[in-house]
Amino acid sequence: MKSPKKTGKSAAPSKDTPVPEDRLAAQLLAQEAGMPPTMLRVAHYLNRNRVALLAHSAAELAAMIGTSDATVIRTVQALGFQGLADLRQSIASGIGKSSAPLHHMRQTLDDIGGKGSTAADVVIDTHVESLATMQEPRAREQIHKAVALLQGAGRIVIYAAGPSRPLAEYLRLLMGRHGQPAKVIGQGGLGLADELLDLSEQDRLLILSYGKPYKEVLLVASEAAIAGVPIVLVTDSPNSKLARTSNAIIAARRGRTERIALHGTTLIALEALVMGLAVSNQSRTIRTLSRLGALRNVLG
After folding, report:
1. Distance (Å, rounded) from C-alpha 300 to C-alpha 282?
2. Which InterPro entries does the record associate with it (predicted)?
3. For 163-205, how does the pLDDT look when each residue is reduced to its tens digit (9 = 90+)?
4. First-to-last CA distance in the chain?
5. The pTM is what?
């Protein structure tokens, strides 16, 4: 009785790493060439938005994607899963094995050895290394070029998603205090389409994007090219496809390779941009900050 169990199909996945660790990505890669466009769009959305997939029903996912719940179910089945429950189980079982943030945290914890003081030292030392890179003439020139490209913009549109989004909102706040109109975009799914409707040649686009660029950010860059909008890219992948379409690039490390992502370097680069823009239009900056002070005085 034991022999069939050892030689049956249930033992095969252990020999093929992608199956247990990322079955969805593997199935999508195998099936996408023959999938209808509508189902392919759903499949890519599910692959990129796994937390939403785990948390929402087929009807809710359909509303997010802009399709029917029946199409969501058919897509899941076309990818080789019995249904949403089967797909969710596959994703949940692979989270601990395939999650890059989890892997990077484990690697960092191994370096630290369980000491809080050592953890603080690692973070500080990593930022010191990144700052040393930013102090090089080539890195400074990247920021100078970005400032020159952004100054005089009728509006600066900032694209950011995930952990970079709060940095973008902070940047928008600072720009607003200096009188520079700014807007943050980066919704997932169909919401991004609405955010792109008013993109015009009066704008400048500042993109925060790390690692391999997703479909959404490539769409943003494509729309910018159509509208004649120059692009400044802040990234740790200066040789990516997205970088090749950008007018200025700021290379900002997110820490050490295969370790937790740290955003201090990005924040410093963004604050340098803000100060450069503030100085380029000093009268507007002083006028807006004076107005801010007057409003605060009224509020007590």
Report:
1. 27
2. Homeodomain-like_sf, HTH_RpiR, RpiR-like, RpiR-like_SIS, SIS_dom, SIS_dom_sf, WH-like_DNA-bd_sf
3. 889 999 999 999 999 999 999 999 877 889 999 999 999 999 9
4. 81
5. 0.66
